[in-house]
C-alpha cells in the first residue's frame, strides 16, 4: 500500500482479511498471465540517490561541516558522499587564471584555514532573511 499508494479495501461490509490487499492483478483465462510492470508487493526504499549541481557555500574545517546550497537527500545524521562534479560543462566556470573557491584535494598535511567561504558577490547566503 505504501510503496505504490494503493487505497486499500473497505473496513467493513464483507471485507474480511482483505483490508490491505492490492486488489485484482489482471484478467482471467485470457491473457492468463500477469502483465510485466504490474505494481505488486516488494522491497521499498534503500535506494541510492544522486543530486548534481549543488553548490558548496562554506566549509568549516574545525567542526568538519560542509554548508551546501540545495536539498540533500537522506535522513538527519545520515552518511552523505560529497565529490567533485564528473560531468563536463560546455562553458568553463573557472577560467585558467582564477582559483577554484575550495580545494578539491589537499596534499599531505597542509594546514587549511578554519573557514572557507565561496565568493557570492558580497551577500552571505547563510544569513536568515529578515
From TrEMBL:
Biased composition (Polar residues): 18-30
Matches recorded under Pfam families: Ribosomal_L3 (PF00297)
GO cellular component: mitochondrial large ribosomal subunit
Stretches the record annotates as Disordered: 1-41
InterPro entries in UniProt: Ribosomal_uL3 (IPR000597), Ribosomal_uL3_bac/org-type (IPR019927), Transl_B-barrel_sf (IPR009000)
Record GO terms (molecular function): structural constituent of ribosome
Keyword annotations of the record: Ribonucleoprotein, Ribosomal protein
GO terms classed as biological process: translation
The family this protein is said to belong to: Belongs to the universal ribosomal protein uL3 family.
Protein's name in the database: Large ribosomal subunit protein uL3m
Organism: Smittium mucronatum
Taxon lineage: Eukaryota, Fungi, Fungi incertae sedis, Zoopagomycota, Kickxellomycotina
Amino acid at each position: 500500500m505504501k510503496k505504490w499508494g494503493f487505497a486499500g479495501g473497505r473496513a467493513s461490509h464483507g471485507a474480511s482479511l482483505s483490508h490491505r490487499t492490492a486488489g485484482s492483478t489482471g484478467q482471467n483465462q485470457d491473457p492468463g498471465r500477469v502483465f510485466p510492470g504490474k505494481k505488486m508487493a516488494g522491497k521499498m526504499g534503500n535506494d541510492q540517490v544522486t543530486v548534481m549541481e549543488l553548490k558548496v557555500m562554506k566549509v568549516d574545517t574545525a567542526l568538519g561541516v560542509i554548508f551546501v546550497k540545495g536539498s540533500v537527500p537522506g535522513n538527519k545524521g545520515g552518511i552523505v558522499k560529497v565529490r567533485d562534479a564528473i560531468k563536463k560543462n560546455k562553458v568553463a566556470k573557472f577560467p585558467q587564471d582564477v582559483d577554484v573557491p575550495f580545494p578539491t584535494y589537499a596534499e599531505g598535511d597542509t594546514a587549511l584555514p578554519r573557514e572557507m567561504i565561496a565568493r557570492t558577490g558580497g551577500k552571505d547566503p547563510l544569513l536568515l532573511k529578515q
